Amino acid sequence: MSNQLLYYSRIPLLTAPQSITEQIPGYDNFLKVAKFFTPSVGIIDRTGTITVPFKCQITNPIPEFNPNFNMSYKDCVMQRMQELDAVHQSTGKTFRVLYSGGIDSTGMLAAFIEYYGLDRASQLLEISCSTESIDENPWAWDRYIKVGNFKLTTSHNHGNAWNDDKILIMGEINDHLFGGLGSGRWSQYCIEHGTDLYMPLSVERLVRFFLWNNTNQSKADAYYCAIRLKQLADAAPIPITNMHLFQWWYNFVLGWEACLYRIMNQANYVFPKDTLTTRFHQFFNTPELQQWALNFHYKNPDRFAESKYYKKDCKDMILDILDIPEYATKNKYGSFPRVHSLRPIGSVIDTDLHKYTDVSDFLKFIEPTNSFVK
Predict the structure, then answer these.
(1) 20: Cβ–Cβ under 8 A, 6 or more apart, which residues?
(2) Which domain holds residue 70?
(3) Which pick of 92, 97, 283, 287 has the fewest CB atoms within 10 Å?
């Protein structure tokens, strides 16, 4: 048994008996910080600044910032295609993409078509989708998927389809590269209070934000949590100058690891040991794309949430490759709402890819000296 976690969901903890949660050091303070994320996201700090109450492995540390990095977003994506093609060549496996019709999954589809050409891509790529996928992006459906020779499967059965001879590809992490429009509680706070998204970051503003987000929290507890997050901002390789940029940063840092692996929580069997090398890849999880994101936010700290910037580089790539001008005005929609609303089958997944199914299993991975113990 591994003594570290690859992934954990907070959903079982939300209804866990007190006899379990009282054995988790710092749990109450941890929960107040973790509340900014959806319950399926168990926060893990990729900078190593904040230690959570569970022993977790950091599989993707933040790259060292390089201000001279000059690859475009599309350059990074096409390099990713070379890496995935190498997996295909070495294993003989073909690909299955979890396709929602949203910007991220359409970006993946465009990348496959650009790299292989439509005919070859349709031979190598199975598309796991739903009727919602077609409704969200009818142009890609009509002009590429329907006219190609793609094999189609239902995304609502993906939990039963992990152990076959496919390389499963998913695009969830692209959100974390861009941040901005429509994401996070800070945006809602600013709307309710009529304040500027880009007001300077400070502990005092974080305290007010915590008190608004947790109405039953004491000011002392809010201050304690705010100090933890300010430490996270201070550990950034680029200046985190304002509250909205910090919203992107804490998602980029704390939510990345969980979003890499949370879809695995819905698989209905034991994972083969080669799952993370030859069977499952988050498409946008590369050091180059992270380096691109760091440079993007370094250069646009006070305007990245404007609608004209939101995932613009991904949209531009889609328009360039697929030539669907209607896509230029596409808004953000939630991807795979039904898939991610499926009931998680396990509580945690350890680094040996063993899935634990009982909330008491959290206690096997306790980190007693964590950042939330006073």
Answers:
(1) 13, 359, 360, 362, 363
(2) 65-344
(3) 92
